[in-house]
């Protein structure tokens, strides 16, 4: 089996996910570009290859059982194992004026849709990829979260945390809680799993509003994906360090 480390990044055809894939590729990882859209996925793969990255496309819809199962089988055929899984794919859900999701008028179907992608999708992909991760000598899982998931910050009136987002923010709090449960369950293994906040990044996800570039947004996830053995697990990080839950 090749000694080249293998990574899979979900939602890697654009934005932060693409830059995570590019950053890991620049470090010598062979990178699976997970994405639903075939054209965008293959365009990203071609762009990465042109930059010298050993990349391959992985058709992947995190909300569909069969798609995730097929993706795991593809990674096994192409690489035989997985060293890094970055669960980056996520959605905000429809926003109202001022980029607000009003909890008093929230569409429950919207909540279900956001949780299906941001939480259940992560569980679905992680569990499908775990047998491949267990074949690695130093497996790492990174769940891309957000500082708006921090209940400590959300509840502090003296901290500016942005608009009310009653579907998106709780979905990321849920993701953080799930991350801790994985860390507890996997505590006796060599798998490290952490949550990463990219900050407010100018991508289509934010309407290209934000002070940070996608490359800057990818930095924490890349750092957590390449942690040394014995590194932290079950924690929540941004550029400046640990974020309070």
UniProtKB/TrEMBL annotation:
SUPFAM superfamilies on file: NAD(P)-binding Rossmann-fold domains
Organism whose genome encodes this protein: Streptomyces phaeochromogenes
InterPro entries: CBR1-like, NAD(P)-bd_dom_sf, SDR_fam
Keyword Acetylation: no
Pfam families with a match to the protein in the record: adh_short (PF00106)
Record keywords: NADP, Oxidoreductase
Gene3D superfamilies, per the entry: NAD(P)-binding Rossmann-like Domain
Family: Belongs to the short-chain dehydrogenases/reductases (SDR) family.
Record-given protein name: SDR family oxidoreductase
PANTHER family reported for this sequence: (+)-NEOMENTHOL DEHYDROGENASE, SHORT-CHAIN DEHYDROGENASE_REDUCTASE
